[in-house]
Amino acid sequence: MGMRGRKRWISCLVLTALVASVHRTAGSAAPSGPNMLEIEAEAAPNLPGITEVLTASDGPLSSPSPANEVRGHERTHTEAEEKEEGGPLGMDLQKLEERRRRRGAWGMRRHAATVEATAYRLAGLGRPLAGWKRHNGKKQQTGALMSVLKELHTEKSRLLDAEQNTGAKKGEEEEEEEDEEEDDDDEDDDDEEEEEEEEEEEEEEEGEEEEEEEEGEEEEEGTEVPSNKTESLAGFNSSLPEACQTTNGMISCRGLGLTHLPIISDLEVTQLDLAENNISHVAPAALSALSRLEVLDLGRNQLGDESLGPDTLRNLTSLKKLSLEGNQLTRIPAALPSSLAELKMNHNKLDSLTPHSFTGLVNLVSLELREASLDDTTVSPSALEALESVQELHLEGNRLRSVPRGLPTALQVLGISNNLIEEVTKEALSACVHLKKLDLSHNQLQDEAIASKAWVKLTALESLDLSNNHLGSIPTNLPRSLLHLTIQHNAITHIPAFSFRHLQPGLRSLRLSHNALGDRGVEHVSLVGTYRSLTELELDDNGLTVVPRSIRQFKNLQTLRLDGNQIRTVKKWALCPPRNSGSSLSSLHLENNLLRVDQLPPKAFSCLPDPQGLVLQPQRGHVHVMF
């Protein structure tokens, strides 16, 4: 039974008790002695019609209280004595009769109105008693209430008719006296109403206590289903802003300046983006109802270690991607769901990585710890061994001086650029037999700091980036599977002969820009092993004065960069030899050299199918272009 049914039953019970009390009062007064109204009638035998009026007016709803009957009895005897003694008041008996008749009718009307108002007020509450609900099958007793109200209407009509039949208008003096008497009576009635209201409030409070106890019992019997539709939780206390975007199970409230998590009424949501706000706390139960949530982004907020309790994320059993980057966390949050496949902790202030940091994350595939304030002292040697399933690990932008030990054997992508790494030992990467992409750029590596067999175990490596280090030559013993080698912005002066001959199926891209090769740095046999596989070659900004002779040997070269050198001329067959008429070259950069474009051989670039792929301008010095 609902709250409204309980309220109605309480009002019915209170109203029935009130009416019964009035009837008992009237019934108990009759046997104990003569009616007070009859005494007054006997005291004034010469007043015609007063007995009938008072008798007709006497009833269950209009019977005065015992105290009022005693006062009326005393007044009757006093007036009778005054009549016998020729009283000093000298009041006319006819006026006394009219006044008493009027006051009696007015009092009865006032009492009926009070009872009726009380009944309507209680009926408006509509609060049933919890005890009656248990015994009557949770039904509402609206018929009894309507019957009582109908009786009150009938009694009111009868009293009004009696007043109209017996009342009469009098002078202004009598009206003033009546006003004074009405004020006194109003005060008495107000006191009575206040007492009734206090009693009703006490009964209502008792009913509410019983109702709360019953609801508690019902909740214990039923199964609790977590819901955040109507419950206001700490840190979860505002409805979804209109500026949030909702489409196909995704909710995005990115960059709205939120300080608390909004209430999510759609429990079927699978993606929730709350990044770039000012959220500083997430209540333990704030997200527990979102059992279907797969992607959660809380990046770039104000979250600290105490913002996420041990049970805040545990119940998100479907969660696969979690971003906490750009916060103020000093450790990996505890009790992350085991379903998690991708975790982003970039741009935090982690002070330690221990073996317990990733406990239970058996399905974790990608871990990002970029710019997380890590160094060799904060990363435990066995911290990463628990990440047995991790295939992608990003440690860029930290202060590591060596490759961390205990790298997962399933690792395929390792980003460790922008650190302070000074060496690569033989054992550093020996366990990474499945590694395909390695980024060691922007470190402090030198030629002698890389072990000769550092890459031996990397039999699956396809991409190696060693740019922005201090290397003077191409590293030896590169993995046979290597396809892309980026070694820009070093100090390389020479490419040893046959450096790439052992590669199978061979390099596809070689980026050597911004080094110091010069004309002697690239020998005729330096690029042997790449002539059929290479599609991209970058030799820009290397101090070249001529186009290397080995360029004409490439069969599938598509992009060639020779810009930013000191090349003064391009020989007729340097780029497009007659035997290579089917050249695939589509992009050639020769800008920022010392070429005199108007003196170039007419067929120097005949192998380019599209002239738009040739870039000759600008050049250093004064040049003229002829077509």
Automatic annotation (TrEMBL):
Residues 173-223 have a biased composition (Acidic residues). Residues 55-92, 156-241 are annotated as: Disordered. Residues 1-27 form the signal peptide. GO terms for biological process: extracellular matrix organization; positive regulation of cell-substrate adhesion. PROSITE patterns: LRR. One of its GO terms (cellular component) is extracellular matrix. Residues 70-80 have a biased composition (Basic and acidic residues). InterPro entries: ECM2, Leu-rich_rpt, Leu-rich_rpt_typical-subtyp, LRR_dom_sf. Keywords: Leucine-rich repeat, Repeat, Signal. Residues 225-241 have a biased composition (Polar residues). The keyword Repeat applies. GO terms for molecular function: collagen V binding; heparin binding. Pfam families: LRR_6 (PF13516), LRR_8 (PF13855). Gene3D superfamilies: Ribonuclease Inhibitor (3.80.10.10). PANTHER family: EXTRACELLULAR MATRIX PROTEIN 2-RELATED. This is Extracellular matrix protein 2. It comes from Merluccius polli (Benguela hake).
